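User: Rhomboid family intramembrane serine protease. Structure?
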Amino acid sequence: MGASYRDQADASPVSAEQVIAEARKAFFVMFGGLALVWVLQLVNYADHYALSRDYGVRSGDVGTLPDILVAPLLHWSWAHIESNSGPLFVFGFLAAYRGVARFLGLSLLVGVTSGLAVWFFERGDVDTVGASGLIFGYFSYVVVRGLFDRHLIDTLIGVVMAASFAYLLTVAVPGTPGVSWLGHLGGLIGGLAGAWVFRDRRSRADTGAGSRQGPGPTTPGNVQVRSDHPRADLHKELGDLGLL
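Assistant: Predicted structure:
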């Protein structure tokens, strides 16, 4: 009998080259996504921000519910998109470099939680747009992902990001004028949930058992390397650190 796709995916080797390939894909995905956001801004600006008015999320308006997936791509001004572009690219890349497919699922989850937070709880007749919810979702995901996946390098990245950008949390609390703190809070919650939903479910116990099978030693993450390979020790050390 053939193995299932999931079994094959879990058993497939994960090499440093594959990690680099995923990081390269993540870079182009974020570059393309950011380019799309800027193209939409040009169209939006040329039409006096009609797209933001037509596709913004409005609290309690059932007709705007589908717009929670579009609103993160739109902005209200050049200053708005400029302030979002840098963090969106950095946090998005860090969230995507372990796997683009997982990142797309995360983006959908964060977009929904951020948009629903605005739709349910925002007050007033306001059209809410902007990538801030995604940024906060990617931020919280990057901060805690390493704890769920038990990857040392991701844990260290999370610590650095948390220490460097903790000030972002100040605009996820009530009282910040002109800012949809509810969208930010919804994004944060979505990122935390995403870190658990999209966690690496391969346990260390399973991969440790796998290391006792086959002709040569394997590193955690099911990376099998022959014992006579000149870099066998390096692969094992990287695997033990959670880098592979």
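The beta strands are 218-219, 223-224. The radius of gyration is 21 Å.
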